[in-house]
Amino acid sequence: MIARRQLLGALAGAPLLAAAPAYRLQAEPVAAGLWVVRGADAPIAMANGGAIANISIIATDAGPVLIDAGASFAHGQALAALARRLTGKPVARVYLTHLHPDHSFGIGAFAPGIVAATPPVAAQVAGDAAGFSTGLYRLLGDWMRGTELPAPALVAGDGPVVIGGRRLRLLALSGHSPADLAVLDEASGTLITGDLVFHNRAPATPHADLPAWRRALDLLAGLGHQRLVPGHGPVDATPGTAIAQTRAWLDWLEPALKAAMEAGLTMVEAGDMPIPQRFAGLAVARLELQRSVSHYWPALEAARLPRVSD
Amino acid sequence: MLAARAAAGPLDGPLPGDPLNSPNLPVVLQLVLPEGARVRFDDRVKVSFPAIAENQRQFPVQVDARAVPGVRRIIIFADLNPIQKAVEFTPHAAEAFIAIRIKLDQRTPVRAAVEVADGSWLLAGGWIDAAGGGCSAPPVSRVKGDWSQALMQVRGRLWPSGDGGPARLALALRHPMDTGFVDNIPSYWLETLAVTAGGRRLAELALNASVAEDPSIMLMPHLREGESVAVAARDSGGLDVAVRVAGQSPIPPSREAP
Ligand SMILES: [Zn+2]
């Protein structure tokens, strides 16, 4: 395996003549002083430069707050420029919802002093985030040029913060990943969930803890917000539709995988099992089911195939 | 019908008719098939795998050649893996069906070669994108450091047929399946696995280190009512394990998801 350092060095230092491909971003108004930059509803691919996650921009008197940083250095830069155009001010703060690359690998575009993450996410950045990334460089090539992961200098704790007169409630949770941050903009009643909630798209489970994820969804459902910006998929104009969708998929997935194992299916057959009609509106459902089979099957074997040797 | 060796001719072009158009196939066939093997492409051989390689160290591949009469052997291989051949399966008294997990090193064709009664081979497969270096990254349990305690531990489950058809046998063995390409860890892999019942040979597998760590295998043996199976395996260090797997609940009639 090529070390990430070497890869980054090669990408950053090579005398490349062609310009890096450009992100063309558009902000969609969600509420007063709040926009979402919608990610492509597709897997990470050369066609989208990894810009598949929703990124929120919240205007404050001190400057815009970004919820998530984009997938690459260039993506982070493009988001910073867009936030400045929208608000007339440079970015004041960036909160990372979690350490999946499509949400966080753009942090190098921001001064570490304005980037905030929960302690577990900061520890992941300092530790082995590289383990994630080799595949991303192979997938995205030039889009990743200059991408580095400097450690965030600010700690995002659980509770309220006031930035430039705007009050945000931070919710330090977990379940989709080992550490997930949700942000409630109290002025507009908008809940920004990162990947704890997917909308009209099947949830991804590569580092999920399903019981913890369910607990997080229970908590989010009771916040009294008006609308929701999911990690992927369109804005939910209602408080609960996307939360219920995410919950329904997770509630189906776990017993369905166990039943597939009990019935003697192979991994390939489990990935091809029928998906209930009620999920017909979810994009990439088959792909995410197959990914989830890959995530859970070895552990299901260890738990559900009897040991026959001494 | 093409002779692999003859068709190889100049070793830098795809085999005529290769639906995957892989320039390496002629050379790869010389490595994975017997010398002079006659091959042709046949879509009755179903090679199935997920749309993306979520974990290139544990990539599930399933070969179903039940539509082909008289199958003698099934070989699963990946053209662009450093160890191309993953497994050779001989279904003595079993369906021409095998599911197993392999390692992927890069974007590669993943294929099956199926030997039929006249000694020729049928080929099928597809391309799969692997994101990283599955064959050159240390296997997980080496990082965990627990492999030596669990080495050759076997889990297994037998689903007898409810209706006189083939049973299903799931086997999961703990083994590092070291390729020899990582750091200074020498190659060390599960080499053979044989399944018998009442002294009858049901299935034999010859494995290579390109099979995923902790090999997981599904077969469809032909059993008599109430029979259990004996499984004997040996690794490249000469370590043996022998276990018996008894039938539990039969295969449910409906395989629909809840
Ligand atoms: Zn995520």
Task: Characterize the structure shown.
The complex is a heterodimer of chains A (310) and B (258). With 310 residues, chain A is an alpha/beta fold. Chain A has a single domain (4-239), classed as 4-Layer Sandwich (Metallo-beta-lactamase, Chain A), CATH 3.60.15. Chain A has nine helices and twelve strands. Chain A has helices spanning 4-13, 73-87, 101-104, 119-126, 130-140, 210-221, 241-262, 267-271, 285-304, and strands spanning 27-31, 34-37, 55-58, 65-67, 93-95, 115-117, 154-155, 159-163, 166-173, 180-185, 190-192, 227-229. In chain A, the strands form two sheets. Chain A has a seven-stranded mixed beta sheet with strand order 1-2-3-4-5-6-7. In chain A, strand 8 and strand 9 (166-173) form a beta hairpin. Chain A is globular. The longest helix of chain B has 8 residues, at 25-32. Mean pLDDT of chain B is 87; it is low at 4-11, 132-136 and 254-258. Chain B is mostly beta strands. The N and C termini of chain B lie far apart (45 Å). Chain B is built from four helices and 16 strands. In chain B, 9% of the residues lie in helices and 38% in strands. In chain B, strand 8 and strand 9 form a beta hairpin. Chain B has one domain (24-245): Sandwich (Immunoglobulin-like). The interface between A and B is large, with 45 and 43 residues. The structure holds zinc ion. Zinc ion is lined by residues 98, 100, 176-177, 195, 204 of chain A.
